[in-house]
Amino acid sequence: MEPVSLEDQRIITCQLGRQTRGSIEIAVRCQYGYPQVVRVCPLLEGQPFPTLFWLTCLFLCRAVSQLESAGWIGQIERLLHRDGDLKRRMNKAHRAYIRERYELLSVEDRTDLVDVAASRTLLEKGIGGISDFRHVKCLHLHVAHALVRTNPVGEIVLRHLPKHTCPSTNVVCSSYKAL
């Protein structure tokens, strides 16, 4: 992970269409050097934030949104129900995500969470805050996670995308440099 520069922050704001909340780090950059995935602090204003990795790349966000619109969440869930190995690997990814998110907390943060009984969100809920690991909340979260760590669902999605970055003739984020 690397810190977010002022230029990165400006580009991420353009990518998201809003200011970021909480502290973030660059988890992955695209081949052109722009932020593609950021890691988000597991606490936001003292409350659990279940999403650890956030996909910021507009090119990938659009491509994944098209798959979601085409019913891919349901297809992936059916595949999870049928494929025991995929289900096992996905459960492992959820558990690793929970562990990583929790380990990012300071001792003080962990104590505060116990005091407000909010630790369940960080100790039991998986990628994107999902409780039932047989379901998929959002493909974007899984793709972001797959770009940084191991995520079988995100890997399936990435394999079905023809490209993972903008064409060199139309790098979306390059237009943000002029702003």
Structural notes for this entry:
This protein is mainly α. The chain has one domain. The protein is 49% helix and 11% strand. It contains eight helices and five strands, in the order αβββββααααααα. The chain has helices spanning 6-16, 58-69, 72-82, 84-103, 107-115, 119-124, 139-148, 152-160; strands at 24-29, 35-40, 43-44, 47-48, 53-55. The strands form two sheets. The protein has a three-stranded antiparallel β-sheet. The protein has a two-stranded antiparallel ribbon with strand order 3-4. A hairpin with a 5-residue loop joins strand 1 (24-29) and strand 2 (35-40). Helix 7 crosses helix 8. The protein is flat and about 50 Å long. It starts with 5 loop residues before the first helix and ends in a 19-residue tail after the last helix. The model has no long low-confidence stretch (mean pLDDT 92).
